[in-house]
Batch of 2 targets.
Target 1
Amino acid sequence: MNIPLTSNPRVIIIGGGFAGLSLAKKLAKQELQVVLLDKHNYHTFQPLLYQVSTGGLEPDSIAYPIRKVLKDYTNFFFRLANVEEIVPKEKKVITDIGVLKYDYLVLATGSRTNFFGNASIKANSMVMKTIPQSLNLRSLILQNFEKALLKSDLNERNALMNFVIVGAGPTGVELAGALAEIKKGILPKDYPDLDIRQMQINLVQASDRVLPAMSEVSSKKAEHFLEKLGVNVWKDVRVLDYDGEMATTETDVYFNTATLIWTAGVKGATIKGVDDKKFLISGNRLKVNRFNQVEGFEDIFAVGDIALMTEEKFPKGHPMMAQPAIQQGKHLGDNLLRLMNNKKMRPFKYRDKGSMATIGRNKAVVDLPKFKFQGVFAWYVWMFVHLFFLIGFRNRVIVFVNWVYNYIRFDREARLIIRPYVKKVKNA
Amino acid sequence: MNIPLTSNPRVIIIGGGFAGLSLAKKLAKQELQVVLLDKHNYHTFQPLLYQVSTGGLEPDSIAYPIRKVLKDYTNFFFRLANVEEIVPKEKKVITDIGVLKYDYLVLATGSRTNFFGNASIKANSMVMKTIPQSLNLRSLILQNFEKALLKSDLNERNALMNFVIVGAGPTGVELAGALAEIKKGILPKDYPDLDIRQMQINLVQASDRVLPAMSEVSSKKAEHFLEKLGVNVWKDVRVLDYDGEMATTETDVYFNTATLIWTAGVKGATIKGVDDKKFLISGNRLKVNRFNQVEGFEDIFAVGDIALMTEEKFPKGHPMMAQPAIQQGKHLGDNLLRLMNNKKMRPFKYRDKGSMATIGRNKAVVDLPKFKFQGVFAWYVWMFVHLFFLIGFRNRVIVFVNWVYNYIRFDREARLIIRPYVKKVKNA
């Protein structure tokens, strides 16, 4: 990999998400050699992926070049690489561009979509964890309407205009709301020769409320907002299967749909070598102690979605979202520096800053630890917080310009099929 | 195609570029049914593609949804389609989504890259006529540097950092200049462990000056600007072949390069059915009369790059660029309306508004019919004109924000490998 050997200890960080980058910034200009590996050359601001899928934002405005983050840190090396395996006994990482030894290894690999073993759903559904995936969804949504225009068979046409979103967490709720706004404001003008009233947006949740990780009042209000926007909310309905044409459920509800978007679960993105059952607990996450050390290892750490750390208040681990990742990344940075200086590491403690979701124009729900609110003000807070956490001044300006424009003009101009999405062959 | 039959005559326009859209706007709200066919659902602002390739602009800011252009025109139908053949005798157009009859047909198909029959160059070189192509080039440029980092063989590393641009028209010159600025301002920071001085930018032109379609003073000044930026300008050198590793020329100059970008020629994008040799003259363009009627047809018109119309001042036809396309599109719109009203059509006359090219920061050349100037002021004029002709208020703002940011910060943040470019297998 052409990375020089120095007398400083080498820390390898796998993953340039919220956790990996927060950690990296802490290690800047220290007597450590830091190697950051990622399979993309950019950081993705995942909370806004649904706006890329729905034409509200250009993909480049929520991506940020990792090399630019690190450009002033002389002790840093970035490599675009897929990590294939970790060999803890030999302290080495095997990648598609070579093998590298570490002194300390930090897994910040995040999470991937969890299909709970259903190969048919995996093969036929759309997901939204990366920018290319979100662009595929954007293309497919638009292609569906272009195709629907050509169908004289009413059932085929309606299936193309029927969108089923499985999972009513923040991603599912936000996507459903955005689709509902497109249905109202854009599609009738873009497709005057289609009866857009036939477009259905179905949000399907296995449990008894939307946004189950938030407060009950937020769930209720979010559901109310969704219904006001015309989204069909299905609670206590578990999707069992999807063959590319029909989605079946445990109840007698079924959906004829050309598009099923799966946001119903994530799991830790483990890597061979530390994915043994003994390290893993629920959701494929690696059990870590309060110092983010992976159980059974002193020199392997995990931060963010991949790490499962229990605290008294979080017996099932922290929520898999940006805040715990950022806080753990920073904290581990401090701890690694303490370790270098032969000081005792300090246990991590999660400061819950709350959570939020937006449903649409002027409609959001915010749960702060001591205060919950919904509606217009929540919507402003949501926007402010997202702009604040977005990396890069240019990105913030571009996103802000888009939001102002979209708000004033009731528009979303990135409705572009740049690369058509070609559905893979259906599995048998 | 599900397009209703009405008593109004039907005009089919193939292509939503400058010519097609200018024409379409003229036909709005007239007693005509207009069907616009394009293989993309957006208009591409081609003059700025090179900025997408070099990370200066996001692709979505130079694309504009065609349906949005047409949304207030009730007599318009857009269809996303590939036109496969035209059958003039039956007045019908055959596409991948069905067959459609026309009363009047307008070809506004533009141009495609001309490899002058060289299959090896076609298979191994990069081009920049569409947004996906420009994104492929952006990915490849960045992938090259990521790869170069891993090479210990100096020749291999240098080949990855050697960029050969064939053709010193505006596209080639602008791309070379942009690469030179990246070399200077961005790459040394992004790749501190690479010796970026080894990066070569070669601009190869078969004739004896760059920008051969512009004035001699502009050519000279542009060449001076390019050399100041560190571009190697090769004149009177014709590239003969490229196998993916080495480019050979008619002289003893040759280039070991992993990246050859071909901007050395375009040809009319003809369609089967009106591509007979008898309609075509040089550059694969369709010979049209002063009313844009394709020779031999009364009901088939051609506008823009695909059309070759001679005037006294333009014995070889108008230049293949935006201005003639826009003017012909508008003019044909007027003529079609005159035709409907049984009035005589008026002959087209090109108003030459001049041409321009930018080489880099504060460096551009402008040829107006009566006035030529170069340097900072030319650069401002270039930017103003490009913003003015860009379609869409949001696009203008986004491009403007990017330009201001890039100018102040000496930066280009869209250096993202969103979809890695995978080189096709080399041809034998």
Target 2
Amino acid sequence: MTRVGLIGFGYWGPNLARNIAETPGLSLAAVADARPDRLDVVARRHPGAACLTDARELIARADIDAVVVATPLTTHFALASESLEHDKHVLVEKPLASTAAECEALGQLAAKRGLCLMVDHTFVYTGAVRKMKRLIDAGELGALLYLDSVRINLGLFQHDSNVVWDLAPHDLAIVDYLIEERPTAVSASGSMPAGYHQESIAYITMHFGNGFLAHLHVNWLAPVKIRQMLIGGLQKMLTYDDMEPSEKVRVYDKGVDFDPGDDEKRRQLLVSYRAGDMYAPQLDRREALNGVTAEFCQAIQERREPLTGAAAGTRVVRVLEAAERSLRNEGRRIQL
Amino acid sequence: MTRVGLIGFGYWGPNLARNIAETPGLSLAAVADARPDRLDVVARRHPGAACLTDARELIARADIDAVVVATPLTTHFALASESLEHDKHVLVEKPLASTAAECEALGQLAAKRGLCLMVDHTFVYTGAVRKMKRLIDAGELGALLYLDSVRINLGLFQHDSNVVWDLAPHDLAIVDYLIEERPTAVSASGSMPAGYHQESIAYITMHFGNGFLAHLHVNWLAPVKIRQMLIGGLQKMLTYDDMEPSEKVRVYDKGVDFDPGDDEKRRQLLVSYRAGDMYAPQLDRREALNGVTAEFCQAIQERREPLTGAAAGTRVVRVLEAAERSLRNEGRRIQL
Amino acid sequence: MTRVGLIGFGYWGPNLARNIAETPGLSLAAVADARPDRLDVVARRHPGAACLTDARELIARADIDAVVVATPLTTHFALASESLEHDKHVLVEKPLASTAAECEALGQLAAKRGLCLMVDHTFVYTGAVRKMKRLIDAGELGALLYLDSVRINLGLFQHDSNVVWDLAPHDLAIVDYLIEERPTAVSASGSMPAGYHQESIAYITMHFGNGFLAHLHVNWLAPVKIRQMLIGGLQKMLTYDDMEPSEKVRVYDKGVDFDPGDDEKRRQLLVSYRAGDMYAPQLDRREALNGVTAEFCQAIQERREPLTGAAAGTRVVRVLEAAERSLRNEGRRIQL
Amino acid sequence: MTRVGLIGFGYWGPNLARNIAETPGLSLAAVADARPDRLDVVARRHPGAACLTDARELIARADIDAVVVATPLTTHFALASESLEHDKHVLVEKPLASTAAECEALGQLAAKRGLCLMVDHTFVYTGAVRKMKRLIDAGELGALLYLDSVRINLGLFQHDSNVVWDLAPHDLAIVDYLIEERPTAVSASGSMPAGYHQESIAYITMHFGNGFLAHLHVNWLAPVKIRQMLIGGLQKMLTYDDMEPSEKVRVYDKGVDFDPGDDEKRRQLLVSYRAGDMYAPQLDRREALNGVTAEFCQAIQERREPLTGAAAGTRVVRVLEAAERSLRNEGRRIQL
């Protein structure tokens, strides 16, 4: 049984606590949060867990084997590295850390000490994204041309980060998981409301060597909640609408064929269209976060790299850094 | 009665012909198309119109007062300028011409000869866009922060232009009509399928001096048809979904207020959210193209500039040119 | 070439006129309507057709081979029988006539004179309904349990008929076409707004010998337009949403299996559920009314019974009569 | 503090337990369920609650002030009456009991002993239904013509009851709450799959003295989940779509006016249509079940009748009984 200490019981912490408690092989041994009212809630819901106001104290406890970090981004590196140094396995809320350099340092520390370091890229553990991965890997979509993602709603403004660092990690983690090829350059544009100091809307474009294009729209100031992804392949295309109660993934037998033609004089491509059936595969409906805690538990037991480990966490943060740099440089394309 | 000659009876021409025929004050006197099978259709539907295979012959006819140009983009300038030189009023399919310089030349020629020159920015004549204009002008949305438009579907690949020149004119015309301020710079990214020579997907970002941002996603290779626009203001926000059979425009009483706060030490903004009712105003449901032909007719009669004249047509093409240049320069931001 | 005379140029007549004109093998020779302003429209759109104010005159013309009746229901029988007596083939707007007895009389008259008598059950000619028919006939849904149809909107109140006679013929024609078995009894309930003399909302239930149930909701006073049908089979189920721009028909691999079980004492059924993929077959998108006029033309040429002839028209009216009787008798179940 | 004992920890029990635990003024003192594995879950989630396998034992405990019954319908009467006889306040899962006579007996017993008896008509406590009630009471819809409700999905077949007793109580409770007038008669039709002994689909029509009509469609064997209600008034109409994540209630400024006209000869009504704006009021989004447990707590404290007490529970069961009788009598209209 891996005894887990959770740091941070704000927005996401309660979900992590519940899933840790319900994952066989894990037990929720302690929770740390500086706010007494949050610890009251912990005491009511998880009477077996020790309640602490000091994260350092939690990290130092001998009856803790693993630490889960669900605190603001700026604290990730310090808490994770201190935990690793206390020989605890670590699961960190996305994004892994504030810079790619920090991510790499954490990865090296974990590797040196033989500990499990994992980042909570939740969407990678959804039935929808898993299904999309299988479809792409099986070649069902054919050569991929683009991925377009929209993740917008009237969201909570964060004081210590802009919408890119808040929402885009979800999409970047999905792209990182689905697309074998790695991006070569990133550009971004955004805007902040008058009187505010952080972008509340941003567009990120990821360029790939083979012509594939990934584009993200993230927005804290939208009147409607949209969570939609399109992936276009030359054979088939798919949509992923996370707001649909069922049939989240739809595969369209639509595509285009290009025939260079033999008529030299017309030098004209013949474009032919296919528009066939659509189907929506049945998806695994289990809670994604349960997959996260289960993977953390198993990776520890099997002493192996988790599916979303330091490498994936670093790649996502590297794109975030580049997007941030592009935002500060008039949308210039930043090479990775 | 203004006697109209129509050049081009392909995809859009038949709609123009029908609306010309049904507009009081206009009559469809002649149609020119090089393809005999298209003229057969003309003869069946519009028995009163002369059928010609030669556009020049149509332009030269004395019994024609106005010419409507519904041919591929590369021919717009030549046909429109020749028509003006024959003292015909001219209505041109969007976009007005291939370059801003051509647009300006056409505008000057029309002004010199006292003729009406109009571009068919159809969406400007929809009940939905008209309603949005009134809402924005009345200040109901408050200070505008962004406009986001998605115009995608499995569309017909054009051999002589990319998706930017094909689809974006619609959105640029809407932005030009709705937003008083003019863009100062444009950037664009896109991708073309392997084996094809034109972008089939593109993203265009328009930057404005006051921080406002407009972003367009145009795509010929999408599995679903989406025609959705979001406009975010600090007071209210709206959505415009052209695929909705009714309630195309929805106004959300949602917004964010920023209070700088008086606590110097915390240096923290207080963000407060409003989430009130939504309403969908009743819209004028008349066919937009009918508004186009009616405006052409009235502008001729009243010897005035049409709502979408050479100035608007030039501004739209100037953005298209900049987007094209950005596409060829790694998405660099092009100053206007 | 079959020369067609059309009687009635109101709401549906113009659509019939257009499709007659565009169907090879048919020509629109004359149109009769008592209202001069409607004939003005005819003259503009169909300059080749004679315009008459008197339907009898049209029926009597020697240069007419077939008559299409698009007038109010109460006139169907007289116009259709007079046309047949003048040896004209006849296509009648739905429903065929006001009573099943009238329908049968028309059928006998047409048979005796060797003429084609057809009723315009438009939906039977849609790609969606055709596809559903093929799926059902192929046994893909398994044993059918129910059909549920909702056809509601803010509709035009008819002075001479209630919502049952106005809207339900569409659904009854679809049921008649899709379901091999015939209904054995009908019941109906409805309501009329205070101050009005016709039901504006009604529910019709059709009972079948094998336990199958068909239920229709028709409504002129609904705030939203819904055109949705569900068909439940034990193997699969489908939905047909006519308001969807594409994917109108969706087939769900969902169902229930009943296992009587072997445990006599518990006497309990084991119910197991299947919830698999959904798919939306590609549909023929041609205009349904074009299929109607084409079938009329071919049935005349081939001297055969049309797909929706007197028999289908009579069956539909028989259910309408029974529903009307049930409405007048407190919803009593009327045997057919 | 009212100490609550919960009987039944199956599908709905866990939700009740959670809300009891989180309602100030209530504490979850004990849970009874015959299945040890369910009690294991209770022990993990509610460590403070006593776990019992015998409901009678729970009812008899002196440290329990109130009993919540979340067991199959057939046990409601026995458990509720025994609880009342032990001087416990009682909250019963819907429907209150198997017959109206049982409901009345429970009501009388509670009244005699001065105890609170409440039925969990959950939907009455939703923000959506509360808002609809306010709109109707304020006369915003004008004279009501109909209420149409569809509550369908691929649902769990119940062995001891048909779909009417399982799903319709929700809608009947809403109708009972929204509509001041009481139904005078009920009719119902349904069907059961071959090999099964309970209706899996049913239609219920409620007739009212003033011409108002309420119609329910309940279905366990539908491929899609629909939870939609329409309410038509002569002034305005509304839709209530419980599957919408937001904007569940939409109010349409649509209606019809009937003008008897002054032209005696034409004896024709003039019908005029209004089609104005639609709006979606902001709704209270608190969990409905929390409103249920809060109302139970307050009614006990204030020694008053709860909003959904014995009277409402009896009225709902009376309609269920009538619907059942109609189902067994060929859909005959049963007077209430």
